[in-house]
UniProtKB/TrEMBL annotation:
PANTHER family registered for this protein in UniProt: M-PHASE PHOSPHOPROTEIN 6
Protein name in the entry: M-phase phosphoprotein 6
Region (Disordered): 81-139
A single GO BP: maturation of 5.8S rRNA
Composition-biased stretches (Basic residues): 128-139
Length: 139
C-alpha cells in the first residue's frame, strides 16, 4: 500500500508552503557546502605538525628542569649543588691543564700602551689629522 500525501488544499496553505520553502533552502545549502568541500584540495603532508628535536647532550647553559627556592625542596637543592660542584671541578681541571692560574695577571698602563702602540708611531684613531698636519708642515 502506497503512502498517501497531503491533499492539494492542505499543501496550498501558507504554513505548508513556508515549510516546503525551508526544506528547499536547506537542501540548496547542503548542496553548496558539499560542492565547496569537494572543490577544496590539500596537499598531503603539508599539515603543520609539532616537531620535537632531542639531542644527546643538553646545551651548556641549560637550566635543570626542576627548581627549588629557599630550600623548599632539599633534594633538588642537593642535586643542584652537586652538579655545580662537578662543573666547577671540571672547569678548574681544564684551567690547570692549560696552565692558567686562578690569579689575574696585572699589566701596568705603560706596558699596555707600549704593546698596543703601532711600530711606526701612527695613531690608528686619528689618521686624517696627522696627515693634514704633515701636509701643512711640508707646505
Amino acid at each position: 500500500m502506497a503512502k498517501r500525501g497531503f491533499s492539494s488544499g492542505l499543501l496550498g496553505l501558507k504554513f505548508m508552503q513556508k515549510a516546503q520553502e525551508k526544506d528547499r533552502r536547506e537542501e540548496l545549502l547542503a548542496e553548496q557546502e558539499k560542492k565547496i568541500n569537494e572543490d577544496k584540495w590539500v596537499v598531503k603532508g603539508t599539515e603543520t605538525r609539532c616537531r620535537v628535536v632531542v639531542e644527546g647532550t643538553p646545551a651548556p647553559g641549560a637550566v635543570m628542569g626542576r627548581m627549588s627556592f629557599k630550600n623548599f625542596n632539599p633534594q633538588i637543592e642537593a642535586l643542584k649543588s652537586e652538579k655545580e660542584e662537578g662543573q666547577n671541578k671540571k672547569l678548574h681541571a681544564a684551567r690547570l691543564a692549560k696552565g692558567e692560574s686562578g690569579e689575574d695577571p696585572s699589566v701596568s698602563d705603560a706596558e699596555m700602551a707600549k704593546r698596543l702602540a703601532k711600530p711606526n708611531g701612527e695613531d690608528e684613531f686619528f689618521p686624517k689629522r696627522k696627515k693634514q698636519k704633515k701636509s701643512k708642515a711640508s707646505k
